[in-house]
Amino acid sequence: MLALRLVRGSHPLVQLRRLLVAAAAAGVGFLLLCTLGYAVGHPEHSSASVLRLLWCALPVAATVQFAVAVARTDPATRPRPGLSSIGLGPARLTAIAATSTAVACTLGSMVALLVYLHLRGDITGLPFDGAAADLLAAGQPLPLAAALTLLAIVPVAGATAAGLALRPRTGAPAAEGAARPVPGGLPWGVALVAVGLAVETYAGRGGGAGVALPGRFDGSPAGVLAGWILTAAGLALAGPGLTHLCGRLLQTARPGAVRLLAGRVLMDEATRIGRPLGVVCAVLSGTLAAATVYGAGDGGPAFGPLTGLGAGVVLACTTATLLTAALESRQCRAHTAEALARLGAPPTVLRTAALLRAGALLAVFLPLTWLIGELAALPLTA
């Protein structure tokens, strides 16, 4: 009940972020239910049903990542002086954050179930002249236990991930101070990107069995998809190191106060900003590769409605996670901005430093995204 009262009394922008989490959970829940509908309507294609279920793991992971980012920036779950005396210590606040995440995700899952049942015609008859009847197996009974089990994946995973991310840590200041050497994932990330591109090239030349995706967008060799997953993991792992490198580059060649401030902020926030930035880079490079490959086809529709929905959920969630991480970084730097204001620094200093940080990140990550996308599409277009 306390978690529900905190949710109800939050700021409108906080409520908006929770509604976005619910919307993402609704999209993923609808994809999972459509996968169940395909399995019910095509019992002879059990392997294809399993593959469709596995493809839903990407939207699920993106939604859980976004839910954790929203929970981290929730002011209702931030430790404040005096709360421990009324029983709201770090452990209780972590439980409240996990409960709030579960409530938002459950709301989205229930919306997905209602929309799915409406499109199947189980509530008010078949809408749109039965256009979605075959896709959703409208003529078959829906196994309720299986549907509820699939809909529980996102709330359970989101609440668990939020609880683990916000759990109390002993010796947090020492650990935070130790985390300010250079992030150590850059060499491993570069190695994973190189291995992923090599696997894609080898699989693209040698062919392989096609892996069907929901909707169209099928026929890609399984090795190419495995290589892209390795490349995406490498970009996510290398993101903090590349962000730290951007901060160092800003401070080279006799920097002034603004460049020093911008570079130091990037170095301090490399882990918080770099990882979601690497994930966005991986998603955009994969989208660019898919558009390049299927844009050079016969002109037919390469993406079905479910594939488009899944890709939209992944892209929206990863972008929203990056923006939420930037908001969290700004909240953590609030005391620094106040100290600079007390010292008489003009407001343009902070704005100029923010523009320098954004420009440095774009100058590094945009060409990298384009390069990885072109290299990933090259084996399939050659």
From TrEMBL:
According to the UniProt entry, where is the signal peptide? Answer: none
Span-the-membrane segments of this chain are 20-40, 52-72, 93-119, 144-166, 186-204, 224-245, 277-296, 302-327, 348-372
Q: In the UniProt record, does the keyword Transmembrane helix occur?
A: yes
Keywords, alphabetical: Membrane, Transmembrane, Transmembrane helix
Provide the protein name.
Integral membrane protein
Natural source organism? Streptomyces roseolus
